[in-house]
Amino acid sequence: MKTQLLCYLVWLGGIITSHTQTVTTFTAGTPDDAIILDNNGNIYCSNYMGDAVFKFSPVGEVSTFISGLISPNGLAFNTNQELYVCDGQGNVIHKYDIDGNLLASYPITGHPSGIVKSFDDESMIFTLYTGSKILRLAPDGTITDISVAAELNGPVGLAYDESGKLFVGNYNDRNIYNVLANGDLEYIAQVPTDGGAYPNLGFITYGQGKIFGTSMGSDKIYAVNPDGIEDYVLFAGSSQGNADGDISEATFHTPNGIYYDSTEDKLYVTDFGTKNLRIISGLVLGNENPDGFQGVQVVPNPVGDEFEIKTSLPFDETFAVTVYDVTGKIVFENDLMHIAEKIYTSTWSKGSYFVHIKDKEGVLVKQILK
């Protein structure tokens, strides 16, 4: 019933559009850590508890890209499609060509963990887990400090937003920060945990205006507002498991690696507990406008205490709006909604909501986050 409420709309004589976010699983290989994609859509996942990096083709073929490492951790490509691999306990970063041939190795003390290509040049930005630093690896092998801030506590996750703002996440205390140009850290949020064997923040990624982080001990994924303080919502997950299907019902087992694919609007997640690669398809958080409703926006999104529906179309003077929470409960309903009339949300709980907009053309569904 829940899936029907959120993802299925009865034909109303016009154009019907909805977005379904679903979770599927690749069970081949034993991926449990970082994730990256190459320019051809191949997915690379490291196996920290093993010795390999696995390659998943777009059609699902799985192969071992490289092996013989000690504890492969963070992964990142440069613009030449050369893959950098952090071998954490090996205290080295390796660079490989697209065929898996070793090009260079950079010995680094302090357990290199996460890595991302610099926003501005061909340098690689990486974290030291035990060294609690953020460093820069230049193309010529030179290593320099970016941040040695005291707040760094086992940093692993790194991500850039579309403007080049750098974020870092601590594995140990689950804190997420914005890394300032002078190396200082600006606090954003602490991702919750239910404890367990891994009360940690795995990796982070950025997409559609949000930072996504994996809470390993909670078996959950959180979406964090990078412009707020302690402004986060549960995005996916509940009890520990490996159930696929609609995102409202899918479960995860100690999720660790996470990567947002902007070309496909997908999130890739590695489950540390089951060594599986999970794929969340149909990710919708923004203001996509399918055919029949071009120019319709719900703004702002994420919402604060209010939002409104804007359009450049000659909409009916009035239209119907219904908003559901993730359980299918109606939290707002107005059959004679005027364009630009505000919808107030101050009494709503934080989380995901689905806005159903109906006019003579049919129904449009948009997901919002509060």
Strand proportion, as a percent range, falls in: over 45%
Distance between the termini: 24 Å
Low confidence ranges: 1-19, 286-292
Can you tell me the CATH topology of the largest domain? Neuraminidase
Radius of gyration: 21 Å
Kindly report the average pLDDT value.
Answer: 87
User: Number of helix segments?
Assistant: 1
Short description:
With 370 residues, this protein is an all-beta fold.
Describe the overall structure:
By secondary structure, the chain is mainly beta. The longest helix has 6 residues. Strand 21 and strand 22 form a beta hairpin. The N terminus is likely disordered. The chain has a 5-stranded mixed sheet, with no helix packed on it. Strands 23-2-26-25-24 form a 5-stranded antiparallel sheet, with no helix packed on it. A 4-stranded antiparallel sheet has the order 3-4-5-6, with no helix packed on it. The chain folds into 2 domains: 102 residues, Immunoglobulin-like; 260 residues, TolB, C-terminal domain (Neuraminidase). It is built from 1 helix and 33 strands.
Tag the structure with descriptive keywords:
370 residues, mainly beta, Neuraminidase, five-stranded antiparallel beta sheet, 33 strands, 2% helix
Give the helix/strand layout:
Blueprint: H1 2-7, E1 15-17, E2 22-26, E3 35-37, E4 43-46, E5 53-56, E6 62-66, E7 72-77, E8 83-87, E9 92-96, E10 102-107, E11 112-117, E12 124-128, E13 133-137, E14 143-147, E15 155-160, E16 166-170, E17 175-179, E18 185-190, E19 201-207, E20 210-215, E21 220-224, E22 232-236, E23 245-246, E24 255-261, E25 266-271, E26 276-281, E27 297-299, E28 306-310, E29 318-325, E30 330-338, E31 343-344, E32 352-359, E33 362-369
Parallel strand pairs: 1-33
Antiparallel strand pairs: 2-23, 2-26, 3-4, 4-5, 5-6, 7-8, 8-9, 9-10, 11-12, 12-13, 13-14, 15-16, 16-17, 17-18, 19-20, 20-21, 21-22, 24-25, 25-26, 27-28, 28-31, 29-30, 29-32, 32-33
